[in-house]
Amino acid sequence: MLSAFVRAFKTPDLRKKILFTLGILAIFRLGSHIPAPGIDYGLVQRCQDMATSTNAALGMVNLFSGGALLQLSIFALGVMPYITAAIIVQLLTVVIPRFEALKKEGQAGQTKMTQYTRYLTIGLAVLQSSTLITFARNPSTLFGGSCSTVMPDESVGVIVLMVLTMTAGTGLIMWLGEQITERGVGNGMSLLIFTAIAAGFPSSLAVIQQKSWSTLVLVLALGVVIMTLVVFVEQCQRRIPVQYAKRMIGRRQYGGTSTYIPLKMNMANVIPIIFASSILMLPTMIGQFNTPSDGSPAPEWVTWVNRYLGMGIQGQDTHWLYMLIYTVMIIFFAFFYTSVTFNPDDVSDNMKKYGGFIPGIRAGRPTAEYLAYVLNRITTPGAIYLAILSLIPLIAFNVLGTSQDFPFGGASIIIIVGVGLQTVKQIESQLQQHDYEGFLR
């Protein structure tokens, strides 16, 4: 991998793309530290120093923003509105016939769906920024402890300005990601997520180091093992062979080639973890809004939610009931999202249309049933793998007392490994193109 980067910097065109990408990533990290208007940065830092616990309901958003959310910066929302919008639009292709038709129209339809995703991202940014400002008006719900205020001026004009600024920040992040995709190296939004998560690694390891150096060494060794296993699983494929029959069209012969359908063990990627975390954070978030700010006792149902469905909040360990529900939901959403993204009937129809068939399997309905059978068999270990990986941060929180965004587990490690592999592959493919050009000259 390192040799690929060294060769890339020796290639002028590729070097410009890499430097451009690094420049955009630097701008993204700079914006994560610029406070939004109406926020006193000194008070925010003081609240973080006094923090007794972090709101677990916002842990996932804070992870994907690289810590910018709890700093209440102009990029506080990070890429989470775009991720949510992209998932919603993808799911709507199953429900709305218009979206399904656009999906089948090729590049023109994809461009239209991208435009819908942008509009929905802005709408979600307005909603999420308003929710975040509501939390910021009562900082104890964000940072815990006795933090009193981070907004000296809570007038309507200031709040509207904060919403507009954070929404504009989300739009700028979207534009930065698209610029990386068009003029840089790799997928822009994926690299922004990669950068945000990687930025939180030092702070997470620093919390572990405060326990003891031996604990840090043990965690790093465990991290190497986990990353190796994640690389192995993410690269696993079940390749189903496909043969195309020979066809004569006019005087030319087409077909007669062999290829395969690559089915990954983890086709759903991190989406099941995001779904499960988002749904389980709702009761805790509702409980936060119903907790009295004057220090009086909370309602009994809020106490029950915090005890059994809270992800390590208020100094408590994560309850086994939360872990059980979390695991079941991840396994369910792994099968659900895989069935949405890969339709065996559509694949079978397309193969039949172009004269393709799986050796030993009849075209049409038998092919669809065979694909569904294979898909279910490989999704089962993939879903269990996701569930185990997502429990690692929760177990680490209980055992080590670390922050919820434990670096070696859950969505963070899958994204770090997946984006890293994808970017290296793209760099190697572009290097290979340059080698071919040199050979042709």
From TrEMBL:
Q: Where are the bilayer-spanning segments? A: 68-95, 116-136, 156-177, 189-207, 213-233, 270-289, 320-342, 383-400, 406-424
Keywords carried by this UniProt record: Cell membrane, Membrane, Protein transport, Translocation, Transmembrane, Transmembrane helix, Transport
Q: How does it sit in the membrane?
A: Multi-pass membrane protein
One Pfam family from the record: SecY
- Which Gene Ontology cellular-component terms appear in the entry? plasma membrane
State the family it belongs to: Belongs to the SecY/SEC61-alpha family.
Which PANTHER family does the record associate with it? SECY/SEC61-ALPHA FAMILY MEMBER (PTHR10906)
The record's subunit annotation is:
Component of the Sec protein translocase complex. Heterotrimer consisting of SecY, SecE and SecG subunits. The heterotrimers can form oligomers, although 1 heterotrimer is thought to be able to translocate proteins. Interacts with the ribosome. Interacts with SecDF, and other proteins may be involved. Interacts with SecA.
Stated name of the protein: Protein translocase subunit SecY
Q: Which gene encodes it?
A: secY
